[in-house]
């Protein structure tokens, strides 16, 4: 459903004497996320994972390559088709929690996507918010709280709820649990799994913990300095990694099994 084809992105930094250095953040990356599946993107810091996420969200444009959603090249769409894409592909970032406006109650934060959508009658908003809080295993009573009154895990759930209220088809999850305590990470991951099953969502999941990727992802892309090292279903990749770098990565990162 979401296909990235030969995506290249170079960041240019201007040096003090003209000239400058370039970083090839992504070098001809080609992957696809199937319906209802989870594509994991793993790699060390600086390998290009977030750049790929931002391109998949059309937050930034690639230098070359195409992003197709439902068969359509979204690097070129505008107007209604772009609004449609922005609604169906929603981000959840590591700091979704920190990005919540501290002066807004949870109810107010969750009203924003409904306002943005414009197709849900105002009279239904309150019920939608109660329903989504229940769906993410939070008490509807939290609606009158402020973000600082919630735990990190609860705030990340609110970030997920806000994305879900747009009724997306794909969530782009950029290190969604990396800022959370290990004990809370499993809860949020289990929630994401249940939501995927119940709502038929597809995920692009970025992480750096291999044990999480193995547990959570159907397919895995391994990135190293912007280069695609491996792209395979998770089982094959962990059982029989083809690429030398992937092998090193698997050997270097301790996995709790
Ligand atoms: P990751 O998410 O895997 O840590 P990123 O996609 O954030 O990696 O970054 C990949 C590379 O691109 C890094 O070398 C980073 O410094 C560089 N980069 C990312 N965004 C920018 C930017 N806006 N301007 C310049 N360089 C950038
Ligand atoms: Mg990143």
From TrEMBL:
<dbReference type="InterPro" id="IPR003439">
    <property type="entry name" value="ABC_transporter-like_ATP-bd"/>
</dbReference>
<dbReference type="GO" id="GO:0016887">
    <property type="term" value="F:ATP hydrolysis activity"/>
</dbReference>
<dbReference type="InterPro" id="IPR050319">
    <property type="entry name" value="ABC_transp_ATP-bind"/>
</dbReference>
<dbReference type="GO" id="GO:0005524">
    <property type="term" value="F:ATP binding"/>
</dbReference>
<dbReference type="InterPro" id="IPR017871">
    <property type="entry name" value="ABC_transporter-like_CS"/>
</dbReference>
<dbReference type="GO" id="GO:0055085">
    <property type="term" value="P:transmembrane transport"/>
</dbReference>
<keyword id="KW-0067">ATP-binding</keyword>
<dbReference type="Pfam" id="PF00005">
    <property type="entry name" value="ABC_tran"/>
</dbReference>
<keyword id="KW-0813">Transport</keyword>
<protein>
    <submittedName>
        <fullName>ABC transporter</fullName>
    </submittedName>
</protein>
<comment type="similarity">
    <text>Belongs to the ABC transporter superfamily.</text>
</comment>
<keyword id="KW-0547">Nucleotide-binding</keyword>
<feature type="domain" description="ABC transporter">
    <location>
        <begin position="2"/>
        <end position="250"/>
    </location>
</feature>
<dbReference type="InterPro" id="IPR027417">
    <property type="entry name" value="P-loop_NTPase"/>
</dbReference>
<dbReference type="InterPro" id="IPR003593">
    <property type="entry name" value="AAA+_ATPase"/>
</dbReference>
